[in-house]
Please model this.
Amino acid sequence: MPYNITNYNGSFLVSVPNSTICTTTTSLGLIGQNSVNFGLTMNENFVYLLQNFSSSTPPASPIPGQIWYNSVTAVMNFYTGTQWQTLSPPFDGDAGTAQVLIPAHTPQIEVTVVFSAGLIVSAVSHFALPPAELPLYAQVGDTTFPFQSRFPGGLAPGITLATDTQGYQFTGTAAAANVLATGRTIALDGSVTGSAVFNGSSNVVINTNLIDALNGPVISNSSVTQLPNWFTNVFVNSNGIVTDATTLGNVDVYTALGYIPPSVVLFTGDVNGNTVSNGATFIANVFINTQSNITPGYYSNIYVGQNGIVTHANNDNSVPTQGIILWANPGQIPAGWAISNGQEVTLSNGNTIYTPNISGSAPAGTTYIMRIV
Model:
């Protein structure tokens, strides 16, 4: 009765007839029933397995999963079913790989170490191992190598590079990194300034400051009166930027001056001094900061810098310096002025003049006054 031999997974391998020894199906001799001298074949099979078929050439008739030790290169190989492949690069005393036992870990495990120039340069572990669990030395063959000192921070799951004065380092492209090796400063420049250091460990916020490109940093909000607010029909937000404006009318003139001039000419034009059209209206002679042709300077007693940024403001409480004006407070005449009612006035140089008598044409509650100094 023949022996039907199966593989480890239960699949059929070969049928060995009685009184025969099959040496062509596998690298071992498969003994049939009632074979003569079968003990010799059996003993040789044990020796071949102990030596992993140690030879300079691979064994004949291999099957998938079979191990072969190349006695010339000292490399362990395995058979895939179609070809022999190296099981792992060996350690030749100078370079290669080897297994190191970690007895202090529970349960005991082995890690793979990589050698170069007779030094351990990296280790591969499935577990996080603190320095205290690492052996002081690793025994590989007949040689002892420093181990714990090569990994003063312990081993991380995955690949850990050894600490080395020769500067061993990872070369290539990593899929991800926890932090940058060197934090980098990200800075803003131009109309706003600000900076923050970013190393990838967390989000950062850049605190910015507005800049007047022609006149230096914007003065803090405390030096600009009541921001956000309106300044002679120009709205300035809390950052000192002009964001809105309305048309200037007669009421605005009266509110600003305290009187209505005899002749009011409203005009329009750009802040660069281009030609204006008499009789038109203007929006406080200041463009909103979306325009690009603003010339830094004073407009309606507020200073407008580059990009429409307001840096400071003055109170609008002055009166004209010359001429005759309509005054809204007859009970309080400014110094250097006199009511235009035909009165005699002595000037500071001793001369005497008479003011024109036009008080009768002033609206109720007002009077005309004349500059006399």
